[in-house]
Amino acid sequence: MKLENIKLKTDYLNFDEEFFHKVKPTPLKKPFLISANNEVAKMLEIDKDELYNSKFTDLVNGSYILDGSEPFAMCYAGHQFGYYVPRLGDGRAINLGELKGEHLQLKGSGLTRYSRQGDGRAVLRSSIREYLMSEAMHALGVPTTRALAVIGSDENVARERWEKGAVVLRVSPSWIRFGTFEYFYYKRKHDKLEQLADYVIEQSFSELSQKENRYILMYEEIVKRTAHLMAHWQSVGFSHGVMNTDNMSIEGLTIDYGPYSFLDDYDFDFICNHTDAEGRYSFGNQPNIGYWNLSMLLKALSPLINMDKGKEVLERYPTYFTQHFHSLMCAKLGLDESKDRSKLIQWLFNIMQNDAVDYTLFFRTLSEYESKDEIGKLFISDKRIIEWLEEYEKELPCKEDMKRVNPKYVLKNYMLQEAIEKAETGDFSLVDSFLYIAQNPYEEHEEFSRYAKATPHKFKALKLSCSS
What is the pLDDT of residue 375? Predict the structure, then answer.
């Protein structure tokens, strides 16, 4: 499909203007394409050749508007680090419309009504990180938004230092957040809350549209998807960093990649966001925060559903999480999930925590080791892990499928920083290389094998800011 033949839908604009702000993107100076994602283009049925002409760069820059598009920013609220903020909204993101069930959005495209003290911009480093990481998560089977392209520019943007402005064109089945519901609940505009719920059901849970109890069923689906998302994060060793309710998707997707990180060494208490002094969003606390955020969503939905029934649904969250996490970890270990392996799994985590073992490297090595010594070399002392291996091997693990679920590569922060530093000199070769690795994380990629090793000590446990 050619760009001129695309026609977007903007059903969200059927609401009144309290839901959104119509606003045109503010183009960057001297834009240029850094990278385009052929896989996402294929999903959207956009011709590959269209990605590499100037009109496509103009689309990402906001200076070329597709047919049917009426750009707008969405309004929402949210609990940030546990405290309610009555109005947030898309402060640096502008929605273009829907194509093939995916909503196109420009991140870094200029000021909106909701920018507050911000400048509406994104910088090169944060844009490259989101572009690559969303694709890496998708390839690992983790529900996530994705990105079609990232562009750079000659425009200066002030952060901790002067940096170059960039824009990511990202896509999602929905950009509605827990905080979208919170906005209308705390405004006591229950009619609009109901309109929003009906829209979400139509867009995301259409099988519920004719059910009398559709609102409680919608909430149950959100609870289940959120529990499964948290299980996925924990199983791959991903730390989001900013699990505010405005960063929680009603579709159960990973959204708003900011100060995220994959684990280097396994550390239950790892904090990737340097502003999170108390560790509210630490790696190990993510499942608990998922539950807390869902309790805030339940409160926001209270005008529409019976609270007693809602609490019953919420209390299923731990079971949904535990069952799915157990299933995912059994797959990583090559074990039949019909038997309770929780003690074996926790025993392993305790050993890894004590010996500061690289999370991804351990499971990949476990997928293909031939002698216990290969595993033992990853640990400070091999005694405890050898004891674990002896018990593990009694369970007769099936290694045949383990390499398909234990990646050789994840995009660790030091890798991304290397790509960013090259990009800041005008060399974008690592962006494309890491995109390929991100999309094929289980393959060997011999030329990049150094990235499959344990993270160099000086780069471990990097903490990032929200502008990262």
Answer: 96
Among 35, 34, 23, residue whose Cα is nearest residue 120: 23
User: Which of 245, 398, 286 has its CA nearest to residue 334?
Assistant: 398
What domain range is 337 assigned to? 327-404
**pLDDT level of residue 457 (50, 70, 90 thresholds):** confident
Residue 346, domain member (yes or no): yes
- Which residue did the predictor score with more confidence, 462 or 417? 417
Evaluate whether 18 touches 74 at the Cβ level (below 8 Å).
no
Which listed residue (47, 198, 246, 427) is catalytic?
A: 246
219 belongs to a structural domain = no
Quote the percentage of the chain above a pLDDT of 70: 99
Instruction: Confirm whether pTM is higher than 0.90.
Output: yes
Number of domains, the chain? 2
Q: In this structure, what are the phi and psi dihedrals at residue 146, rounded to the nearest 5 degrees?
A: -135, 180
Residue 271 in domain: no
323 within 8 A of 340, measured Cβ to Cβ:
no
Active site annotation includes 246:
yes
- Structural domain contains residue 180: no
Torsion angle of the four alpha carbons 347, 353, 355, 357, in this order, in degrees rounded to the nearest 10: 100
